[in-house]
Specification:
alpha+beta, Rossmann fold, OB fold (Dihydrolipoamide Acetyltransferase, E2P), 6-stranded mixed β-sheet, 5-stranded antiparallel β-sheet, 8 helices, about 30% strand
Length: about 375
């Protein structure tokens, strides 16, 4: 068992802010390597998990992202040992775990419901795993004190859960999950019950915690913002399968199909025909005759395709340019830091536009005529 780290969330093992840390190679890594091989879980004829393969590196933060029923929580439950495989295997540091009971896998676990003992103080809740493991009193007290310091809970040590906010209770649940310094931490929708501001704050704390403790973390969520904020890699699930896995920026900019493009972030999906191909750049024409260039994979064929354009990548102007096309504003909302505009292209396609230049661009009126454009680096041809 690794020695506890005398650090707090927001610090890193290298002594620099976590946001400046370059990843697992610059921090102490205690995490396990996990390999999922052809994992299956069936309920009658329904495949909740359908021959999933997944390799997770030691100390990596992987998010399982998908809608309800996609199989993400079922896969986490298979890893935890709450459910048994109907096919395939799961290896932790090269060893199969299908016959290892949950309590002997040594994983830390955090759930949506905090699952704290209401009759115990914060200190007693966090100490519980150590007591169950037979750790001596002196070591337990030291471990608990250090863990409360990491989670910035030292001032709440003697409180009961009922005296704490939801965010504080979730911090206690996380502290209890990491007090044994587990090699693997499983988190199942831990932030879904919190309000938006608190959720965003704890997202950063969990990311920094990962830098601090170096465990392998598997995080389940349906919230793409959480996945993009915290993950080293994201595995997007749909209908029991992983449909794409990659770094957050790659998933966002280069989704593998329409489902990923629509589920991860806001998107404009435009039907167009490929007119010409030059390496990974193609020239396209939409049904209204607007001609534009886009990036694509090498293997794309000439024909009709769907093109992704993210709302924040669309440039707008009051006057036409050589590369623009006209649109009519159908909705315009001021959201403080952005303008959210919906507009209709000639031919009927509706565009969502997110404009961040709110200081110099006034909110347009419904019915206004604008001119929009985007470059090849701003859009992506889906397969």
């Amino acid at each position: 068992m690794a020695e506890p780290l005398a650090l707090r969330v927001g610090d890193s093992a290298a002594g620099v802010p976590a946001s400046q840390s370059g990843g697992a190679s610059e921090r102490q890594v205690i995490g396990s390597r996990i390999a999922v091989r052809d994992a299956e879980k069936r309920y009658g004829q329904f495949h909740a998990v359908n021959r999933i393969n997944l390799d997770i590196e030691p100390g990596e933060f992987i998010t399982l992202l998908g809608p309800s029923g996609s199989g993400k929580t079922t896969l986490l439950n298979l890893l935890a040992g709450f459910q048994s495989l109907d096919g395939g295997e799961i290896l932790v540091d090269g060893r199969p775990v299908h016959n290892v009971p949950t309590h002997k896998r040594g994983f830390g676990m955090v759930f949506q419901s905090y699952a704290l003992f209401p009759n115990m103080t914060v200190t007693q809740n966090v100490a519980f795993p150590l007591r169950m493991a037979g750790v001596d009193r002196a070591t337990t007290e030291r471990r608990v004190a250090e863990t409360l310091e990491i989670m910035r809970l030292s001032d709440h040590a003697n409180k009961s859960p009922s005296e704490m906010s939801g965010g504080q209770q979730q911090r206690v649940a996380i502290a209890r999950a990491i007090v044994m310094r587990p090699k693997v931490v499983l988190m199942d929708e831990p932030l879904s019950a919190l309000d938006r501001r608190l959720r965003e704050s704890i997202q950063i704390e969990i990311r920094d915690l990962h830098q601090t403790i170096g465990s392998t973390i598997l995080f389940v969520t349906h919230d793409q913002g959480e996945a993009l904020t915290m993950s080293d890699r994201i595995a997007v699930l749909d209908a029991g399968r992983i449909v794409q896995i990659g770094r957050p920026l790659d998933i966002y900019r280069h989704p593998s199909n329409r489902f990923v493009a629509s589920f991860v972030g806001e998107s404009n999906l435009i039907e167009a025909e490929i007119m010409q191909k030059r390496g990974t750049t193609v020239t396209l024409k939409n049904r209204a005759g607007y001609v534009f260039d886009a990036e694509s994979r090498d293997a794309i064929d000439v024909g009709r395709v769907t093109v992704l354009v993210r709302p924040e990548r669309i440039a707008i102007a009051n006057e036409p340019t050589a590369s623009s096309t006209p649109v009519i504003v159908t909705s315009a909302i001021f959201l403080g830091e952005i303008l959210r505009i919906e507009a209709q292209m000639e031919g009927g396609d509706t565009l969502l536009i997110r404009c961040t230049d709110t200081a110099r661009r006034p909110l347009p009126d419904i019915g206004d005529r604008l001119h929009v454009s985007w470059g090849p680096e701003d859009c992506w041809v889906l397969t």
